[in-house]
């Protein structure tokens, strides 16, 4: 299978002129890729080995890897669109392009999940399928997602609805944007100190945890990072020291038991601060990295969305193959799922997702110019 030339050097689409072009920050792609790997490893550990808990590094990344995704998402939206919300048309372009980015692969994984579980269910819930394909579940039923991990995509769509207001506020007065950001932190404080209880497991309170307003402050934190730190630089030694401290604190953080213990109270606040600082460190990253490390991390970062959504579907398909081939080694199965997921994600991105994103850009550019 021959990869298109865009695999090595993506061509710039003329439709991109509708939105000011910002150079990608490679280090943020690296962090996305690392978090995608950690979340996949977390799930695979639970499927084939042992379920990581709050005491393990992997158990923490299983939760805070998604939290870091939210922070990165807010930061990325601010980097790309901070000059864009000047007209209603520009705002519509933003929403249209987000839909063309999010919906196609979500449709594939949702329908694949339905197909793979069809014979274990007596009826198909068409309403549930519709609200998943339109991502309306994020607004009306956060727990009504179908594909594993899709709850965070529903959260993202809710956050996109707030993005124009947040960026316009920051562009008008930075203090106003920071005030709105602070209000979301107050809401987050309510969830971690009052809405979630240490007396029950995270699983029993999952619907409360995945409420979009519980994680909204993470997304706004990413936006705040951009507006408050974009003109500030740090030395390489400062970044290196910060990364060592952050990772050490994350690994040896004193928490044990069920993962509810790391999403409530002061543990939540501490780990969120570490997550925000980690994103800041990668945002301001200036340490030279060898190409043989940077290149695969960059590609992994680009296909993060596929890795995140496709690994549960890939696992379900591979398990059927393992049974057919009489493969019983957990290590062989785990490594096979990881390898297949990365390959499927690369193929999905370059042969499917890029084409849909380009279509969205072309359509919105035509409307933009016509207006």
Q: Radius of gyration over alpha carbons?
A: 21 Å
**How much β-strand is present in the residues?**
under 5%
Helical run tally: 14
Helix content: over 70%
Number of strand segments: 0
Given helix and strand content, the structural type is mainly alpha
Give the overall form: globular
Q: What string gives the helices and strands in order?
A: HHHHHHHHHHHHHH
Mean pLDDT, rounded to whole units?
A: 90
Distance between the first and last residues' Cα: 42 Å
Largest sheet: none
Low-confidence stretches: 1-19, 367-371
How would you describe this protein?
By secondary structure, the protein is mostly helical. The N terminus and C terminus are likely disordered. It contains 14 helices and no strands. α6 runs parallel beside α9 and α9 runs parallel beside α11.
List the helices and strands and how they pair.
Elements: H1 26-48, H2 57-81, H3 88-117, H4 126-133, H5 137-140, H6 151-172, H7 174-195, H8 206-209, H9 212-229, H10 236-252, H11 265-283, H12 291-302, H13 304-325, H14 330-370
Helix pairs in contact: 1-2, 1-12, 1-13, 1-14, 2-6, 2-9, 2-11, 3-6, 3-13, 3-14, 6-7, 6-9, 7-9, 9-11, 10-11, 13-14
Using brief descriptors, characterize the structure shown.
371 residues, mainly alpha, 14 helices, globular, disordered N terminus, disordered C terminus
Please outline what is shown here.
By secondary structure, this protein is mainly alpha-helical.
């Amino acid at each position: 299978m021959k990869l298109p030339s865009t695999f090595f050097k993506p061509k710039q689409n003329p439709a991109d002129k509708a939105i000011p072009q910002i150079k990608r920050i490679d280090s943020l792609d690296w962090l996305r890729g690392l978090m995608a790997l950690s979340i996949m490893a977390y799930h695979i550990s639970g499927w084939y080995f042992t379920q990581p808990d709050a005491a393990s590094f992997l158990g923490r990344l299983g939760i805070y890897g998604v939290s870091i995704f939210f922070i990165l998402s807010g930061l990325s939206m601010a980097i790309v669109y901070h000059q864009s919300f000047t007209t209603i048309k520009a705002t519509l372009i933003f929403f249209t392009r987000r839909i063309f980015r999010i919906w196609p692969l979500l449709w594939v994984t949702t329908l694949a999940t339905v197909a793979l579980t069809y014979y274990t269910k007596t009826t198909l819930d068409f309403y549930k399928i519709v609200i998943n394909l339109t991502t309306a579940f994020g607004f009306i039923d956060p727990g009504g997602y179908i594909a594993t991990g899709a709850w965070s995509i529903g959260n993202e769509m809710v956050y996109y609805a707030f993005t124009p207001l947040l960026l316009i506020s920051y562009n008008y007065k930075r203090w106003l944007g920071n005030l709105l950001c602070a209000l979301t932190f107050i809401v987050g404080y309510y969830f971690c100190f009052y809405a979630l209880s240490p007396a029950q497991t995270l699983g029993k309170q999952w619907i409360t945890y995945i409420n979009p307003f519980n994680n909204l402050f993470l997304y706004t934190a990413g936006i705040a990072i951009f507006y408050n730190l974009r003109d500030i630089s740090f030395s390489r030694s400062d970044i290196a020291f910060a990364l060592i401290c952050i990772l050490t604190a994350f690994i040896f953080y004193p928490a044990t038991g069920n993962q509810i213990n790391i999403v409530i109270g002061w543990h939540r606040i501490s780990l969120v601060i570490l997550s925000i600082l980690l994103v800041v460190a990668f945002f301001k990253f200036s340490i030279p990295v060898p190409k043989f490390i940077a290149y695969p991390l960059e590609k992994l970062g680009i296909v993060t969305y596929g890795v995140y959504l496709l690994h549960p579907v890939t696992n379900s398909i591979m398990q059927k193959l393992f049974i057919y081939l009489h493969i019983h080694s957990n290590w062989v199965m785990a490594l096979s799922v990881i390898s297949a997921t990365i390959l499927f994600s690369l193929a999905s991105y370059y042969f499917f997702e890029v084409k849909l994103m380009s279509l969205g850009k072309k359509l919105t550019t035509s409307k933009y110019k016509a207006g």
